[in-house]
Write a sequence for this structure.
């Protein structure tokens, strides 16, 4: 009788341990699917620098996936003109974007897109401020404005497709995350039903054993 009682009491514990292990297995791919995040940049967001640097760097929390078209960085000056100088390079978790190294004082806008180590694209944007700038660039800007106006409009519109693409990938990532949440909730519901059935049978055992003794 003791052996039977012990086996019954151990059943819910074993079931709980099995369900916990299954839950951890389900959660592991969900946590692994998180996109890599930007941990620092130079210049940093909302930072003030005297002049435009020769290059902008972005540092992420994991090694990125490189390749043609995988990484894009666009830096624009206060007038909206692009000041990037060539394509960005990826070295592990660090992205380096060469800049022209000159530009007027004012707010500069950065838009970036990378491919995370999980294979999904992610993007972001921020701004920094140039306090002094290049006086020669500021002086020549009005005379060059009529000539550079058409390229500036095209360059300003260029980042728009990138932002749209990243937004769609973010929606798909959110959708897959919700699928995992639904699966986990379903598993927990089934587990609750199984535990309830086991506990009900366990509660019914003692009443069955006590019936013969009452008849005696």
């Amino acid at each position: 009788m003791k052996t039977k009682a012990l086996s019954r009491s151990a059943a819910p514990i074993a079931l709980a341990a099995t369900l916990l292990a299954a839950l951890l297995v389900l959660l592991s791919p969900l946590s692994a699917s998180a996109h890599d995040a930007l941990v620092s940049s130079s210049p940093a967001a909302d930072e003030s620098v005297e002049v435009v640097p020769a290059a902008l760097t972005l540092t992420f929390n994991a090694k990125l996936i490189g390749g043609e078209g995988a990484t894009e960085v666009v830096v624009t000056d206060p007038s909206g003109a692009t000041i990037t100088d060539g394509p960005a390079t990826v070295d592990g978790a660090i992205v380096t974007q060469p800049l022209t190294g000159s530009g007027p004082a004012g707010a500069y806008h950065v838009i970036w897109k990378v491919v995370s180590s999980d294979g999904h694209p992610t993007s972001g944007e921020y701004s920094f401020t140039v306090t002094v700038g290049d006086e020669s660039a500021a002086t020549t800007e009005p005379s060059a404005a009529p000539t550079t106006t058409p390229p500036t409009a095209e360059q300003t519109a260029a980042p728009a497709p990138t932002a749209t693409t990243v937004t769609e990938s973010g929606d798909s990532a959110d959708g897959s995350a919700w699928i995992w949440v639904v699966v986990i909730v379903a598993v927990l519901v089934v587990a609750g039903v199984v535990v309830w059935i086991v506990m009900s049978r366990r509660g019914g055992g003692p009443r069955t054993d006590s019936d013969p003794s009452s008849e005696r």
Observations:
- Residues 38-157 form a domain with the Immunoglobulin-like fold (CATH 2.60.40.1220).
- The helical segments are 2-32, 135-157, 159-215.
- Residues 55 and 98 are 4 Å apart (CA to CA).
